[in-house]
Write a structure and sequence with these properties.
Chain A has about 110 residues and is mainly beta. Chain A has no helices and eleven strands. In chain B, strands 2, 4, 5, 9, 10 and 11 form a six-stranded mixed beta sheet that branches. In chain B, strands 1-3-8-7-6 form a five-stranded antiparallel beta sheet, with no helix packed on it. Classes of the chains: A mainly beta (about 110), B mainly beta (about 110).
């Protein structure tokens, strides 16, 4: 059973398009996150939600809009995609912000 | 925010060798975690270690919170240990990842 699952695994699209990445966790965790890993492997937190409420928003352009319909899901919608958005996006979850994080397998986004 | 520095940036080992990876952080933290990113890109949580020492098989980790550093020990390395090792420091709900140590274990 996959603990944190993301879809799609790969996403190739044109500049200017709008796309969404979905994330679901079946661990019963209260906190979920989105991270961006760039081509140099640097990992940076983007957003954190606790029980469907936004608790961290790390100076991410407002073209990125997370949505948490319930505490098991945290989706990421990106408007007007730019070349610099090409990266691997990871979803993660933890029981709370002080507990171990479990990561999904990542979504590789490529902008043409 | 917290600064996290990892060393060395790259490490090449012969299978069977031991190694120590270091993580320094600039401020007090709520917790400290070590992750392994395998060659397929998956991020695996190795240790949740705000302080003290933990062991899991050939891997162990020690965090000295008062001196703001953590160490990851890999003993009897295997080729499957190859990948990037990240430490992440957590403070006030925010995590900061180091730049990682890329480990290559040669057969």
């Amino acid at each position: 059973d996959t603990a944190v699952s993301q879809t799609p695994k790969y996403l190739v699209t044109q500049m200017g398009n709008d796309k969404s990445i979905k994330c679901e966790q079946n661990l019963g965790h209260d906190t979920m996150y989105w991270y961006k890993q760039d081509s140099k492997k640097f990992l940076k937190i983007m957003f954190s939600y606790n029980n469907k409420e936004l608790i961290i928003n790390e100076t991410v352009p407002n073209r990125f809009s997370p949505k948490s319909p319930d505490k098991a899901h945290l989706n990421l919608h990106i408007n007007s995609l730019e070349l610099g958005d090409s990266a691997v996006y990871f979803c993660a979850s933890s029981q709370d912000v002080t507990q171990p994080q479990h990561f999904g397998d990542g979504t590789r986004l490529s902008i043409l | 925010g917290i600064q996290v520095e990892q060393s060395p940036p790259d490490l090449i080992l012969q299978e069977g060798a031991n190694s120590t990876l270091r993580c320094n952080f600039s401020d007090s933290v709520n917790n400290l975690q070590w992750f392994h990113q395998n060659p397929w890109g998956q991020l695996i949580n190795l240790f949740y270690i705000p302080s003290g020492t933990k062991q899991n098989g050939r891997l162990s980790a020690t965090t000295v919170a008062t001196e703001r550093y953590s160490l990851l020990y890999i003993s009897s390395s295997q080729t499957t240990d190859s990948g990037v090792y990240f430490c992440a420091a957590f403070n006030a709900g925010k995590s900061t990842f180091g730049d990682g140590t890329t480990l290559t274990v040669k057969p």
